[in-house]
């Protein structure tokens, strides 16, 4: 029997009810036995307190539960966009997502960011309009916003019965039946209430019209005889459209009151894609350099991606998505990017409150492996006989850094160990030591990212630490091309060192990052072994620009010519020559400093709009958009990160606590001259 698998993520703006909904799903699928409440406050804290209270791990990277005949794995997606890498990482391994919206607040800025990411990864989605029981709930307004703000193509599958405190259930437009919750966990099925029959007919007709053309014979029947579809037939048409990504079904409910959660589970099984519905994964065969694909079949050669490494009581747990083939305990797989092999120890399927050991995982499964030694987040494991490397997960460069110190000096070593473990779990959190002061530095994607790291240190690793004032992670770049002809020669008896290189350094286009290296030497003037030594040395030298010691963001380097000496040339001599040449050429290429610019979206009542805009402008911000949403204004601005520290306090005091904001990295831009001088003086 083929297993019915669904790997889904739950995406939501903070406070839309993701935690509550996840908990209700686990409750309704029998994974936890008691419903707990989530209190208002910081969502990350909610997860932790909830976990402590119930001894469950709903923030595990993947939690599996069973609904009817299907096995549903919920892939954790982080609530805050500060952790964009985490969002992308989870989008890579899931097949479909449930986007949760609040029926009161609708589509919020952060939901927009996550929605667009899901678009980019081609992830089919269902929408759940939550909080239908709350005062101000408006199902139809959210549907309009889905179209207007997200460009979504919603297909409405349910109509609410009642609203706000009178919300009691839903009309299912596929079966044209009503489901009413009367206090118990399970709904009672009834006829559609008389006052909703006409409305239901209109929406049903609309639904059928939106999906009938998914299949030619269905369309022909529809054009001939109208809506003659049985529930199963209609479900099949809806499924075709959802899996193809052309529409997004919309459901509603109240997670808090456990209304609408079972129909949502039914919809996940009926409409969310199965692993085999997704396109085959693509990767590169390291032996040939050719692109290959692997179909989502247990019989195909094995390939799996490590999506996350999480510390647990077993030590490091590596979550893998098996894309093809099968992984058994005791198997040997290869990390083809490095050539190192891994023997598979224990394999676990993670549930809310326990984990089960399994003997085998097959295509489509998301499971955890205990004790991988040489494979990190974003790396591929594959069949050694048919190795393949999937596209890695891009780790964005951190934009902010701060000194971190333990409160008690005896904790120094434990702090180092804990931070090392945390950056293995989250590669966008970088740890380094200031070479001059010896202080420990942590760098990440935003102020909140670093603050949460401090909290994690305390809660999970019992290390109490303080964070210094956050500093901006500047970058250096060239503004013009520069050429240098440099000879490294050293003669002090015995074998000497000789290397001559002619190197051109050039800026790259905005938005490009990293080193683009080209070898233009003709006639083997510089042998390949030495050319790679030059490339390696330049890549290493880019970690420190010559202006103020900040990393060089992007560079094109061309080795134009060079010369060797029969006895005295070596890779080392070419490395030294390249490093020295880099320093000279970079300084000649009129380098400048770049600063991270953030995209800031502030939502504020009209009374405070002027104050919010004025304040953003005083921070060197440029307003790039403004909009009305219901009775609140939304302002979008690009603001240098350097001027956004502690903005959360400012925005609160400017608006008497009524404005909210979200902030994500947008791009790097040249730092104004006067500020550049100041930053350079501080760096000395
Ligand atoms: P998250 O930040 O998206 O994980 O949201 P939570 O699940 O923590 O919910 C945020 C707040 O909204 C909590 O106080 C919940 O009790 C409340 N909440 C969640 N779902 C509902 C709902 O369906 N109805 C009502 N009235 N409140 C809800």
Summarize the structure.
By secondary structure, this protein is of the alpha+beta class. It contains 16 helices and 38 strands. The strands form nine sheets. Strands 2-3-1-4-5-11-6 form a seven-stranded mixed β-sheet, with helices on both faces. Strands 20-19-22-15-14-23 form a six-stranded antiparallel β-sheet. Strands 25, 26, 27, 28 and 29 form a five-stranded antiparallel β-sheet that branches.
The proportion of residues forming helix, as a percent range, comes to: 25-40%
Mean pLDDT: 88
Determine the N-to-C terminus distance.
68 Å
Largest sheet: 7 strands, mixed
**Which stretches of 5+ consecutive residues score pLDDT under 50?**
37-48, 50-58
Gyration radius, rounded:
28 Å
Q: Largest sheet, order of strands side by side?
A: 2-3-1-4-5-11-6
Small-molecule components bound: guanosine-5'-diphosphate
Tally of helical runs: 16
Question: Your description of this structure?
Answer:
It is a single chain. By secondary structure, the chain is an alpha+beta fold. The chain has a seven-stranded mixed β-sheet, sandwiched between helices. Helix 12 crosses helix 13 (571-588). Residues 37-48 and 50-58 have low confidence and may be disordered. Guanosine-5'-diphosphate binds next to helix 1 and helix 2.
